[in-house]
Structures are given as structure tokens and as C-alpha cells.
């Protein structure tokens, strides 16, 4: 029988899909230990990050929320719906980091029925987070500490509705090593007014910052702010957007590795700005000025970049008789909208586009994950 060197086996395994590697836990105890080691999980993730990520799109069709894989040039989405049933049918796609997806449900009639989930589709793991001390709000933030050395140092923020404080959930295997602190919520004192939670929309993750573009209407004034949460220092900061970013409705995403804010200058013109140096107001630069099609009024919202000179927009019909919405792609070279897929009009409140990579990062508490891996290995060995 031919025996390959461990280095060769490792190079082969690291190139395999995560779903295949999960099955290999049962080969032997040594394989199980190697495949679940931090070194192998990190090496596999690093390779996934070097490859092109998948674009996941949250949308609604037939009255139900769905997740699909965005593929330019196709007139349909490849379904990527959760492999488990959330507590209520409607869910929001909060974000994705290191192959872990965060979903939230919000039941306005019964706050205790609202939940937050962590889900890794690649290894078929999910976990409902414990209920925080206050009801789950509509303003959820999700990110990861990229400098802790722990791939699962996950942070989830639930901003309260009535109190000037937030809550943070630390990863079940956070860098602190404290299981009580690592698998629980804690209050974070913040200067954010309580009513901010009603005006924080879609989030983006930029390095160690969870960011929102907020429009808190105080004393009948409308001021647009970039609100960010530093997952390392656990503090919120606010930054006013420059006056020359003057459009009335703004959306946030990341373009070319920078925070981007975009919106309508008019029904015919759409502006896209980026902050070239994070935290430096003077670095805001207009990146694109897009001329919109000349037909019945439509509201456009930039969801993000699909790469290779392609932007993805959510498009909502404003005519009272149409009540339709679409996902459309815009080609920066031809300056044309090339693809429009019809959706439910209700998609306007929750459509988002996030990057996703396959990974072996576990979302389960450390003890639970180790027991699960051990059971898989013992099935064959025993």
C-alpha cells in the first residue's frame, strides 16, 4: 500500500470543498484532529479568501424571503436558503464573515419570538443565539475581530430601542477564553440616542468596523451620519457626511475596498461616493455618476459590486399602478442596465448583497463542536 507524506496529503485536503472535508472526519482520529485544528481551518479559509467569493442576495418572491447566489448574465437565482427553519418565516440577512452567516428574525407582535442565528452552510452548522436581556431589535450588527488570531471571534450587536446602550454577543470561543463571557450578552454603554435603532438600515463590515448610514430625524432636522462600531475597542462613533453628498436618500455598501455611500441626485442621475481613507471626512470622493434610463420614475438603490465592472441595484417602481421591484446589473463599461429580474415589491425593506466564502469555521460552542467531531470520528473507528 502506497503511503503519501503528510505534507502531500495536507496540500490535497486544503484544496477540497468544506462539505467533503466534513465527511473525512470519520476516516480516523488523527484525520479528525488535523481537519479541526486551528492551523488547518485557517489555511483552508485563507485559500477560500484568495479565490473569488460568492455573492449572496437576500430578496423576496411569492411573499417569502429567500437567499440566492447572484450570477451575472442569468435570469434566475441559484437558491441558497437556510437549511433550518427560523422561528418565524421572515428573516433578514445581516452579514457574512469567515464563512459564517448571521440571520435575524423580528416579530413585532411578540418580541420574545425574535431570534438571531449564526449559520455555516459549508459544514451544515447553525446556532440560535441566547436571548439578550432586552428584546432583539431591528438594528443588528455583525462582524468579527480580524486581529484577535481567532477565526470565530464573532461579534453581534443588538441596539436597544428604548435605552442608550447596546448589547454584544461574543463568540462561543472568543479570544478571552472565558466561557461565561464568551457565550453571553453584555451591555455596552454608548452615547447613541435610543431612537437611532429606528434609522439604522443595512450594515457593512469594513475591517474591524461595523458601519451604518443613519438618518436620525431629531427636532425635524435630517442629518446623515456614518455610524460605526469598533469591535476591538467596543465603542460607537459618528461622523457627519459632507454637504456635497446632498442626495436625500442614501445607501451604504463597499466598493473597491472602501466604504461607499450612494443615492439619487435626481430621478435621472445616481451618484456613488467612496471614503478612500476610513475616518477621514476629506477623503470622500465621487466615484461614479450614473445616468439612469429615461422611462417611468424608478427608485434605485446600490446593493454592491459584483466584480468585473458590474454593479448590482435594487430597483423599485414608483408608479402606483406598477408596484413592481427588480434586481438589475449595471455595466460600468457600456453604461447600460443589462439584466433585470422581477421580485416582490416587499423586497425593498430587506434586499442586500453580501460576500460569502466557504469555510470550516464552527459556530457551535467549543465543547459542543468537539463532541460532534468526536462522534463523527468514532462512528468509523468504533
TrEMBL record:
<dbReference type="InterPro" id="IPR017451">
    <property type="entry name" value="F-box-assoc_interact_dom"/>
</dbReference>
<dbReference type="InterPro" id="IPR013187">
    <property type="entry name" value="F-box-assoc_dom_typ3"/>
</dbReference>
<dbReference type="InterPro" id="IPR050796">
    <property type="entry name" value="SCF_F-box_component"/>
</dbReference>
<dbReference type="Pfam" id="PF08268">
    <property type="entry name" value="FBA_3"/>
</dbReference>
<dbReference type="InterPro" id="IPR001810">
    <property type="entry name" value="F-box_dom"/>
</dbReference>
<dbReference type="Pfam" id="PF00646">
    <property type="entry name" value="F-box"/>
</dbReference>
<protein>
    <recommendedName>
        <fullName>F-box domain-containing protein</fullName>
    </recommendedName>
</protein>
<feature type="domain" description="F-box">
    <location>
        <begin position="1"/>
        <end position="43"/>
    </location>
</feature>
<dbReference type="InterPro" id="IPR036047">
    <property type="entry name" value="F-box-like_dom_sf"/>
</dbReference>
Amino acid at each position: 500500500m502506497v503511503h503519501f507524506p503528510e505534507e502531500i496529503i495536507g496540500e490535497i485536503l486544503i484544496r477540497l470543498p468544506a462539505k467533503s472535508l466534513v465527511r473525512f472526519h470519520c476516516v480516523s482520529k488523527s484525520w479528525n484532529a488535523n481537519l479541526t485544528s486551528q492551523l488547518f481551518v485557517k489555511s483552508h479559509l485563507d485559500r477560500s479568501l484568495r479565490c473569488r467569493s460568492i455573492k449572496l442576495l437576500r430578496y423576496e418572491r411569492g411573499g417569502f424571503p429567500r437567499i440566492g447566489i447572484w450570477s451575472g448574465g442569468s435570469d434566475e437565482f441559484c437558491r441558497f436558503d437556510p437549511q433550518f427553519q427560523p422561528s418565524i418565516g421572515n428573516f433578514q440577512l445581516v452579514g457574512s464573515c469567515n464563512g459564517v452567516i448571521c440571520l435575524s428574525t423580528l416579530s413585532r407582535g411578540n418580541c420574545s419570538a425574535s431570534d438571531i442565528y449564526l449559520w455555516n452552510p459549508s459544514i451544515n452548522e447553525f446556532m440560535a443565539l441566547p436571548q439578550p436581556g432586552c428584546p432583539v431589535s431591528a438594528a443588528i450588527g455583525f462582524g468579527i475581530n480580524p486581529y484577535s488570531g481567532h477565526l470565530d471571534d464573532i461579534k453581534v450587536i443588538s441596539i436597544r430601542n428604548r435605552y442608550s446602550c447596546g448589547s454584544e454577543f461574543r463568540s462561543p470561543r472568543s479570544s478571552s477564553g472565558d466561557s461565561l463571557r464568551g457565550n453571553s450578552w453584555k451591555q455596552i454603554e454608548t452615547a447613541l440616542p435610543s431612537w437611532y435603532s429606528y434609522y439604522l438600515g443595512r450594515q457593512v463590515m469594513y475591517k474591524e468596523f461595523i458601519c451604518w448610514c443613519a438618518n436620525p430625524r431629531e427636532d425635524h432636522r435630517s442629518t446623515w451620519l456614518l455610524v460605526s462600531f469598533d469591535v476591538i475597542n467596543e465603542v460607537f462613533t459618528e461622523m457627519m457626511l459632507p454637504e456635497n453628498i446632498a442626495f436625500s436618500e442614501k445607501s451604504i455598501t463597499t466598493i473597491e475596498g472602501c466604504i461607499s455611500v450612494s443615492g439619487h441626485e435626481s430621478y435621472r442621475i445616481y451618484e456613488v461616493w467612496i471614503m478612500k481613507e476610513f475616518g477621514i471626512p476629506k477623503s470622500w470622493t465621487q466615484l461614479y455618476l450614473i445616468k439612469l434610463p429615461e422611462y417611468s420614475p424608478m427608485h434605485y438603490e446600490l446593493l454592491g459590486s459584483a466584480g468585473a465592472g458590474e454593479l448590482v441595484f435594487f430597483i423599485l417602481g414608483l408608479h402606483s399602478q406598477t408596484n413592481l421591484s427588480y434586481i438589475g446589473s449595471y455595466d460600468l463599461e457600456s453604461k447600460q442596465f443589462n439584466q433585470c429580474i422581477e421580485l416582490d415589491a416587499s423586497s425593498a425593506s430587506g434586499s442586500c448583497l453580501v460576500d460569502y466564502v466557504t469555510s470550516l469555521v464552527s459556530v457551535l460552542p467549543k465543547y459542543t463542536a468537539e463532541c460532534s467531531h468526536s462522534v463523527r470520528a468514532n462512528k468509523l473507528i468504533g
